[in-house]
Design brief:
Length: 242
């Protein structure tokens, strides 16, 4: 079956490329808001995906409709090869790529930036935010990989106490990388404001089923934006109440 999010004509986004000396290249897809609010959102993909992942497309479309410029970017490891997982040794360069993408949106006028991603991409976003607290004013983490499946003691949270940006976490109730209860317990490590959105019936891909994927992704996008308004206060620039 064709993947409509991948195969559709990109009427609402354009290819994006930026090359800056001393930084990884930025490649991806840009959704420009018709009525920009000064908010920007960088979104990146999971270990096995790329910036065309349907969930990222759904979130980007909803955010652009709300006045947010969105850059869906391919991390450096995905630019280097079309398939396959990232290498642990390449993670610092992937974070540098995210930093470069954030800088690109700042140059486009984003006064308030949200950094986010799916699974591996979200983990790298939090690591970057812990290393560079000023890189973003908010975080959007889709299916954060709290621990490897079946290894709940191997938590990927050592850096969470250094997070200063408010964060919204969207998690499937059936995610093998961490249960909702495990996520709730772990979020206590973060000193900033957080919100956890649990998607009933969904797994790590935040889909309830292949047939219901598009509907679930739209639901995720709407819930994530509502939470960002509340937790990360993006509504200050979007015209809503502060």
């Amino acid at each position: 079956m064709a993947d409509t999010a991948r195969d559709a004509t990109p009427a609402d986004w354009t290819p994006f490329a930026m090359d800056e000396p001393g930084r990884p290249a930025v490649r991806g897809h840009l959704h420009r808001a018709d009525s920009p609010t000064g908010v920007g959102l960088v979104l990146t993909h999971g270990a096995g995906g790329d910036s065309r992942t349907p969930l990222l497309v759904a979130v980007a479309r909803a955010a652009a409709a709300a006045g947010i410029h969105v850059l869906r970017c391919d991390l450096p490891y995905r630019q280097a090869r079309a398939s396959g997982p990232p290498s642990p040794s390449g993670a610092p360069r992937d974070r540098a790529g995210l930093d470069a993408a954030a800088a690109a949106l700042r140059r486009m006028g984003a006064v308030r930036l949200v950094l986010g991603g799916l699974s591996y991409g979200g983990r790298q976003a939090t690591l970057l935010a812990a290393e560079e607290p000023g890189v973003a004013e908010g975080l959007l983490l889709l299916s954060y990989p709290l621990h490897p499946p079946g290894r709940p003691a191997d938590l990927r949270t050592a850096h969470w106490p250094q997070l200063r940006a408010p964060g919204v976490f969207v998690h499937g109730a059936r995610d093998p990388f961490g249960s909702p209860e495990e996520m709730r317990q772990a979020l206590a490590l973060i000193p900033a404001r957080t919100a956890l959105i649990v998607v009933d019936g969904a797994g790590h891909d935040l889909s309830r089923s292949r047939r219901a994927a598009a509907e679930t992704h739209r639901e995720v996008a709407a819930a994530a934006l509502a939470a960002l308004r509340d937790v990360a206060k993006v509504d200050i620039l979007m015209g809503g109440p502060s």
